[in-house]
Amino acid sequence: AGAETMKRAVELDVASRFQESLVCYQEGIDLLLQVVKATKDEGKKHRYRQKISDLTFFSDGKYHKQIRIEENATGFGYEKLFQEYLTEIVSEVWVEDPYIRHIHQASRHRLYNFLRFCEMLVKGPCKVKTIHLLTSYDEGIGRSQQISGLEEIQQSLRNHGVTLNIEFSSSIHDREIRFNNGWMIKIGRGLDYFKKPQGRFSIGYCDFDLRPCQETTVDVFHVKHTKKT
């Protein structure tokens, strides 16, 4: 039964049906663990344990998948990366990114990136009610514009029934996004992995799926608790 469950899990994984495959992996590993406990043959126990350790999914509910975005690759808009994890039960989201800042100079478009991420959450199919943002203050004269921009996003989200909680930290380095259904996505460059558009009227300016990307790595995890303790 464990082997059949694992076979089904692999088939779902290959088909990119990750949430369904997660359930099958967990069920299969639970069955294998029961077999290990009931087996007295140490050789068989060792082989079963090796099979379990070779799997990406573990009995504690953790999952890891890595996506490599190549330089100048397209087709990696936010919906492409996040939509399959935004199930209807998602109501709370945590965003940690030190560079959600004003749109001037090197920080250009980062506030817009966060806004577009929020737009994706508002569209659904998830029912997000609360977004927690942890970022760092902009440096110099950009701070007031950063705060003003974030407050405008906050008010706009409130009009859609979504609360945006904003916190600032001078020591934040992690870039990760967590959903309260257990999924966590870490992007090496945070939300700012797109290249600067060639112009305001160039293809890819509005549609992120058509925007060339900078090379980065995306790590997807599934854990039992998304809030850090």
UniProtKB/TrEMBL annotation:
Residues 3-53 form the MIT domain. GO terms for biological process: midbody abscission. SUPFAM superfamilies: MIT domain (SSF116846). It comes from Atrichornis clamosus. InterPro entries: MIT_dom, MIT_dom_sf, MIT_domain_contain_protein1, MITD1_C, MITD1_C_sf. Pfam families: MIT, MIT_C. GO terms for cellular component: midbody. Gene3D superfamilies: MITD, C-terminal phospholipase D-like domain, Phosphotransferase system, lactose/cellobiose-type IIA subunit. This is MITD1 protein. Residues 75-222 form the MITD1 C-terminal phospholipase D-like domain. The lineage of its organism: Eukaryota, Metazoa, Chordata, Craniata, Vertebrata. It comes from the Eukaryota.
